[in-house]
Fold:
Amino acid sequence: MGFCLALAWTLLVGAWTPLGAQNPISWEVQRFDGWYNNLMEHRWGSKGSRLQRLVPASYADGVYQPLGEPHLPNPRDLSNTISRGPAGLASLRNRTVLGVFFGYHVLSDLVSVETPGCPAEFLNIRIPPGDPMFDPDQHGDVVLPFQRSRWDPETGRSPSNPRDPANQVTGWLDGSAIYGSSHSWSDALRSFSGGQLASGPDPAFPRDSQNPLLMWAAPDPATGQNGPRGLYAFGAERGNREPFLQALGLLWFRYHNLWAQRLARQHPDWEDEELFQHARKRVIATYQNIAVYEWLPSFLQKTPPEYTGYRPFLDPSISSEFVAASEQFLSTMVPPGVYMRNASCHFQGVINRNSSVSRALRVCNSYWSREHPSLQSAEDVDALLLGMASQIAEREDHVLVEDVRGTGGHSCPVQPGLILARAAPWGTPGEPPGPWTSVQHHRP
Ligand SMILES: *[C@@H]1O[C@H](CO)[C@@H](O)[C@H](O)[C@H]1NC(C)=O
Ligand SMILES: *[C@@H]1O[C@H](CO)[C@@H](O)[C@H](O)[C@H]1NC(C)=O
Ligand SMILES: *[C@@H]1O[C@H](CO)[C@@H](O)[C@H](O)[C@H]1NC(C)=O
Structure:
């Protein structure tokens, strides 16, 4: 066993250090897939490893069948009941919209459980008749199709080994949302020249996600527009979910390329690989520093304990309870609209697709939007980030604004269906329903 691992290590790492070839990188390059971060438990925190459970699984058959009605309440009913309430109440801690979406960005770096499983397994979520959004005409037969996520194939075989969802990204805070969770993913983002991440026609933006297998490309529910055009290639599969998350991906993209350019000026003899890995190392360190020492303390109102050294016995796996609770917590703070401000902090009008101007980017019309007229240049993205940084988020409570909940409202002609019980398909007991679904819906 030890020999096999040593051999695998040599084969895997060998690609970086071919014997005899001159190796310009003298340090151990961090892998993209999270393997071997822990030298005892090589798999811990790696892409594809299973989520932890804090409480025992609760499946209908004890193995993998989700519990549903009548044992559990209808997810849509539950969602509407617990998350309805007034919008416009401000965060009690003055948390900003930027803080909320930075949280989503950090989450996308740590966990992804949205990739559908194979073979596909569908669950239909029954919509209560007369639902103002999905069944206004009281047909009574409307369902939201929901695909179960990927699981660890070594689980789900018996009551003593119930199904566990698998994390499709590394569980480490290692910049996988910027560079991808595999070597091939990172390669697909690189230009292989000057250590840069590949940009599109405008150097401030990555190229479009050409590889449909890489980036998730849901249709824009507002226009029906499909395909990868207008969606960027990021390290996070769902980094294009809305312009607010995209803005953070664009920020790290620009920061990487800025460092690659700086290093290239300082070290004219360095080649692409050296420039790329050095820039990556700096970007990840900066990102970790912001996340752990700036964002987390301000977000939790707690200072993390002093770092006392590496603890090899600590399993870094994310728990399914944490995923459901943190997403739910963040979504209660999403506002119905996000402002943009220019460099002197004046509010900027937002140009809609129909050329009218509104005061803010409406959230319900922004999911999976492509090429928004107000987000065409690097300055526009700056204006959005500035707006997010100076806007107080919604209150941390049980209320989801209707843009997130997916309920009626004439100001939003089309809304994504965002109301689903995520907990039951994972066999996690006692969790509130999560708001996200892999299927987008047009308003009937
Ligand atoms: C939030 O901001 C307001 C206005 O600046 C201030 O009065 C209040 O004390 C702040 N609250 C917290 C918890 O920082
Ligand atoms: C920001 O917008 C305001 C009003 O639209 C304008 O007066 C100001 O010059 C702008 N500032 C910059 C830096 O463009
Ligand atoms: C244009 O779009 C905005 C937001 O999508 C909407 O509020 C407005 O009513 C539309 N205006 C016209 C003239 O259609």
